[in-house]
Structure formats: structure tokens, C-alpha cells
User: Which sequence fits this backbone?
């Protein structure tokens, strides 16, 4: 699933796009990789410009830790951020043209990533590339540290609350500064709070960015309503219905009047917050290889969510076509950069995402020939072997599964933090129908502790629990997808699975 930001007639609206192919982008300046405490930034900008950009984003990260009370002392999964030239490059990564898409956040087997522009072409001076970057980073922060069940208006409202906050001249952060780029849309297109809180998301038609921001701002900064917002979100996370959760606000008619009056007043409270970050924030800078640089358009277009979750044949066929087009470009570039580890790694992942398991294994073999200790290459080869084992019979089935298992174990020993070897270990049992040991299931659960946004592993873990008749745990695992505010093939599949789990339980 991809979470995005879009500019339409002077306002921003949510766009959730299925993973699609990207058009090639002409090479410009030299791409470099910059590492900071909480993210990795890929950019063609000057080192000085990147330092400023990174420093300001680290301040936003610190602000969110302060605002949410989340301690910044645990394991960090760094999101990759690709700063492309402009919003046309962003749209191309989604297979779109003239779409108004300004940025998006997603994840795949390569990890979480965001795509944001160096400049925007929407004619609104308040709709800046920095706003887009901070908005998409807020999505990552929420999904990384506070995974749960959130309504659409709050997901986008929180991201806009952070995105619209600005660095003040004295270095403090203006937390909650008004979203000037959309002010005229809010009251004119107001949808009652009763509808927003009680109706299913798919039956609502309103500007989730404009009104979502206003409602989130009101509930965040109101001393009486802020505790109610926390109780409301906690109730949703506990599996309460929309009406049960909304009871936290009391009379919804009164809430609607207060919220509309607040939005219509045009004056929004904000807090100048002093946040400290260690300067310089860039801990390392390195140029990236020619192959990786050439493949950036394909990298940000790559998707590997399970095609089996696409219930509608038309949507599945379209997704297959998009992946095939992206894969064709990856094959061509991987042939040009035949000894580039990154190119071969992306080729192996893309072949697997398209269901071409033998080709994926061949690409993994080529990768391991030049990088024998590449843990992801080992894991991908293991996964392809497990797929072949699942189609084999008799002793060959068992032997191939065992060989795949040993390769997954080796990969895990090389990189104990990488998720793919853990998935490969689980699949070495699951694909051949062998009893899955508790350690393999616990491994999947451990992935979600650090990567709670990984829907693919979440669905896999729910199935693993169900196979062991641990229905309560399976249901709890799948709820975050089944109750997602955005329609997607994964949500449809999760809801189907949830109904079966409840029946079995």
C-alpha cells in the first residue's frame, strides 16, 4: 500500500495508489547516499543543501517524539528517502501523468521508503517540497512507532499537522502552524463530524486533508478535547466499533459545532517548540554506484505485495502489467550493469514479485557469485528453492526444503537484523507442508515488532497462527490491515481472512 499527497485546485488530497511502473528519468547530477540518525537520504542536491534538509527533518522527528511521548532510545528502522527532481518524477514512479501527485510513502522487501520532490510545480507558494517531505515522514513515524487502527481523516490530518509545522527563524519548530495552502476549502466543503466518525470510510466523500487537518488540529490543541481524542483512538485500537469509539467525544452535535467554529475562525494556535538535534546530522556521505543510480526510477516503482490478494481480475491483470513493464526495464539495466550487486539484488526481488521464481534464483546465483556473503541474495535463493520444493514430491521435496532451510539459516547468521532470511526460514517449512517450529513463527512476529507496517509479513503471520489454531492471535494480527482506512487488495483479503478466522474461533 502507498500513502501519498496530491495537489488539486489549491488543496491536498489523499491518494492511495497500487504499486505501478515508473517511466525512465533522465540522469542529472550525481546521486549520493546520506545517512542521518533516523533516515537515509538519496539525493542529487549539493551536500550543503542536503545538510540543511536533513537537519530540519531531524527536528521534525524530535518534535514528533516529544508530541507523542515516544522515547527515542530503541531500535531504529531507517526509512529511505528519495529526493527526485520534481513532482513529475514522483508521478512517473506511480505510472501516472499530470496527476498532481507530489509524494508518497510505501514499503517492500527492500524496506520502508518515501519519494519526495526537490521542487513542486503547483503554483502555490505554501505548498513546498519541505511540506511534502515532512508529511510523508510523518506517515512513516506513525506506522513505525504507533501501528494501529486509525481513521483516514486522522492518518492524513496528523501527517498534515506535522507537514504544515515550520522551522522558525530562531530554530524552534512552530508546531501546529496553519495549513495556508488549503484554508479556503475547509468550511466551504464541511462534512459533519457525525458523518466522519460514524460512516464507513468507503461511503464518505470529503477532503481528508483539509478537514482532516482542521479536525486533528482542533482535537490536538483543545485542552478538553485532547484527552477525548486519545480515548477515541485507544477504543479503535481495542477493536471497538466506530460508534462505540466516538462515544468518547460525548454529544457529536456539540463536537461538530465546536470544530466548525474553530475552523471558521481562521486563527489557529501553534506552539514554538525547542528541539535539540546533534549537528551535523549527516553521519556519512557516499556516492552510489552507476547501476544503483540508473535504477532509481525502477527502485521507487518496485512493489512486491502478494498478487494473490488482488481479488478483482482486472486490478490483478493491471498490476501484473505494471510490474512486467518495470521488470523489463530492470532486466535491461541489470544486463548493462552485470556485475553490480544492487542491480542483481533488485532483479532477483523483481523476478520473484512477478512470480518468476527460477529467474529470481538465477539472479540470486549471479549476485552470490560476486558477493558470496550477501544475506538477501542467500534468502532470495532460499525462497525460490522453497517454491520449487513445494512443487516437488517424495524425497526430493524434503531434501530441497532442507537445503533451502540451511541457506536461510546461513543468511540469518550473516545479518540477524534482516527480515528476508527469517521469512525464508519460515517458508522452508511452510511451502512443503512440514510442521512449522515455534521459532519460525516467533521470527515472523519479531519482524513486526520492528516493521509493524509490513502487511505481507502480517498476513503470513496470521496464517501461521491460524495453522496452529491460535485464532485469537491471528485475529489480533490481522486487524490492522482489515480495519485500514484505505481501500486496497490487502484490506479486502484481510477482511475475508478475518471472517474465516472468526468463524473458526
Assistant:
Amino acid at each position: 500500500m502507498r500513502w501519498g499527497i496530491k495537489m488539486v485546485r489549491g488543496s491536498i488530497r489523499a491518494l492511495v495508489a497500487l504499486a505501478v511502473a515508473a517511466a525512465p528519468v533522465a540522469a542529472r547530477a550525481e546521486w549520493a547516499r546520506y545517512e542521518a540518525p533516523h533516515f537515509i537520504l538519496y539525493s542529487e542536491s549539493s551536500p550543503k543543501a542536503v545538510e540543511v534538509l536533513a537537519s530540519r527533518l531531524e527536528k521534525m522527528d524530535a518534535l514528533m517524539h516529544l508530541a507523542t511521548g515516544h522515547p527515542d532510545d530503541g531500535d531504529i528502522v531507517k526509512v529511505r528517502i528519495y529526493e527526485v527532481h520534481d513532482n513529475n518524477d514522483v508521478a512517473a514512479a506511480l505510472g501516472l501523468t499530470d496527476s498532481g501527485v507530489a509524494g508518497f510513502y510505501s514499503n517492500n522487501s527492500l524496506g520502508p521508503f518515501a519519494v519526495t520532490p526537490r521542487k513542486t510545480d503547483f503554483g502555490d507558494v505554501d505548498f513546498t517540497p519541505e511540506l511534502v517531505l515532512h508529511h510523508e515522514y510523518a506517515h512513516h513515524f506513525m506506522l513505525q512507532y504507533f501501528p494501529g487502527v486509525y481513521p483516514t481523516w486522522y492518518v492524513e490530518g496528523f501527517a498534515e499537522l506535522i507537514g504544515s509545522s515550520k522551522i522558525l527563524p530562531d530554530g524552534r519548530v512552530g508546531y501546529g502552524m496553519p495549513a495556508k495552502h488549503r484554508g479556503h476549502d475547509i468550511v466551504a466543503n464541511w462534512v459533519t463530524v457525525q458523518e466522519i466518525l460514524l460512516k464507513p470510510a468507503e461511503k464518505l466523500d470529503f477532503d481528508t486533508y483539509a478537514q482532516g487537518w482542521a479536525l486533528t488540529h482542533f482535537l490536538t490543541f483543545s485542552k478538553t478535547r485532547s484527552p477525548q481524542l486519545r480515548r477515541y483512538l485507544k477504543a479503535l485500537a481495542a477493536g471497538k466499533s466506530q460508534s462505540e469509539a466516538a462515544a468518547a467525544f460525548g454529544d457529536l452535535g456539540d463536537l461538530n459545532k465546536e470544530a466548525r467554529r474553530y475552523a471558521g475562525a481562521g486563527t489557529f494556535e501553534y506552539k514554538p517548540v525547542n528541539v535539540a538535534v546533534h549537528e551535523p546530522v549527516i553521519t556519512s556521505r557516499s556516492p552510489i554506484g552507476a547501476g544503483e543510480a540508473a535504477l532509481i526510477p525502477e527502485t521507487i516503482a518496485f512493489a512486491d505485495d502478494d498478487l494473490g490478494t488482488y481479488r478483482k481480475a482486472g486490478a490483478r491483470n493491471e498490476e501484473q502489467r505494471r510490474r512486467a513493464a518495470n521488470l523489463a526495464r530492470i532486466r535491461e539495466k541489470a544486463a548493462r550493469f552485470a556485475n553490480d550487486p544492487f542491480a542483481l539484488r533488485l532483479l532477483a526481488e523483481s523476478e520473484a514479485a512477478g512470480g518468476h521464481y527460477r529467474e529470481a534464483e538465477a539472479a540470486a546465483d549471479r549476485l552470490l557469485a560476486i558477493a558470496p556473503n550477501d544475506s538477501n541474495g542467500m534468502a532470495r535463493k532460499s525462497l525460490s528453492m522453497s517454491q520449487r520444493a513445494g512443487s516437488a514430491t517424495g524425497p526430493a521435496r524434503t531434501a530441497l526444503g532442507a537445503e533451502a532451510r540451511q541457506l536461510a539459516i546461513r543468511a540469518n547468521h550473516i545479518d540477524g537484523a534482516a527480515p528476508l532470511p527469517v521469512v525464508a526460514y519460515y517458508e522452508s517449512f511452510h511451502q512443503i507442508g512440514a510442521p512449522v517450529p515455534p521459532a519460525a513463527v516467533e521470527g515472523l512476529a519479531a519482524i513486526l515488532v520492528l516493521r509493524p507496517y509490513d502487511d505481507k509479513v502480517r498476513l503470513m503471520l496470521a496464517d501461521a497462527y491460524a495453522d496452529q489454531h491460535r485464532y485469537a492471535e491471528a485475529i489480533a494480527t490481522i486487524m490492522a490491515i482489515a480495519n485500514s482506512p484505505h481501500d486496497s487488495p490487502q484490506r479486502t483479503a484481510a477482511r475475508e481472512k478475518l471472517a474465516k478466522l472468526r468463524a473458526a474461533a
User: Anything to note?
Assistant: The first helix runs from residue 47 to 68.
